[in-house]
Amino acid sequence: MSTQNSEPEVPIRRLDRILAFTALGIAAAAVLCFFAIIIGTALGMDQAAFGEGVWPLISAVLYWGLPLAFVMIIVLLTMSFIRKGRASSRS
User: Fold this and answer.
1) Rounded Cα–Cα distance for residues 86 and 91 (Å)
2) For 44, left (φ over 0), alpha (ψ -120 to 50), or beta?
3) Has residue 79 got a pLDDT over 60?
4) 6-26 burial, b if ≥16 CB within 10 A, otherwise e?
5) Where are the alpha helices (DSSP H) in 1-91?
6) Which of 24, 62, 81, 91 is close enough to 33 for a disulfide, judged by CB 3.0 to 4.6 Å?
């Protein structure tokens, strides 16, 4: 049994792909930074060591990465719904 989709096919724009892959990359980087801090803590690093070197950058990516990726996904979904709504109203 095959079902026909009555909605018109909406092409995927370059901006949509950029938003999707950037959100995925930022979320993956945030998860990797989370594991880096967990491993660093397990290896016995004290609190003062996390304030030096590359650790402030890792902490910033962890702190801001997932919320930024979430906002990017919400923007992507909103743009997609608007575009599909406009395409269905035209036909």
Assistant:
1) 9
2) left
3) yes
4) eeeeeeeeeebeebeeebeeb
5) 14-42, 55-90
6) 62
